[in-house]
Design brief:
The chain is mainly α. The chain has helices spanning 2-25, 43-70, 76-99. The mean pLDDT is 84.
């Protein structure tokens, strides 16, 4: 169990690193269909916002292991719900990017 926990913590740290990298570069080329279906109006601002969401998800990934060990009612599907919420937030950010003038 310790090896799995350390692996998930390492994954969370990697996710945080990706979020910081995305914010620093200011590019949204990771989005599927970018510049074909979806063309961002303010790419730098969108990348900063999505980078922050990714950083928060990485932090939650690391903290989830701590809460999973301390609170017995937390299950894996709670983490899946958190992931789904973050995905929805990214779509909302993309929508608001298209609405800005």
């Amino acid at each position: 169990m310790l090896v799995i926990s350390l692996g998930v913590m390492a994954l969370g740290i990697l996710i945080i690193f990706v979020g910081f990298s995305l914010r620093k570069k200011g590019k949204t080329s990771f989005i599927a269909g970018n510049n074909e279906v979806f063309v961002p109006k303010n790419e730098k601002k969108l990348a900063e916002r999505i980078g922050l969401v990714i950083i928060l998800f990485g932090i939650e990934t690391v903290l989830f292991l701590v809460f999973f060990q301390l609170i017995k009612g937390i299950e894996g599907y709670h983490f899946a719900i958190l992931a789904l919420i973050h995905i929805l937030v990214v779509f909302v950010l993309m929508f608001f990017d298209q609405m800005e003038m």
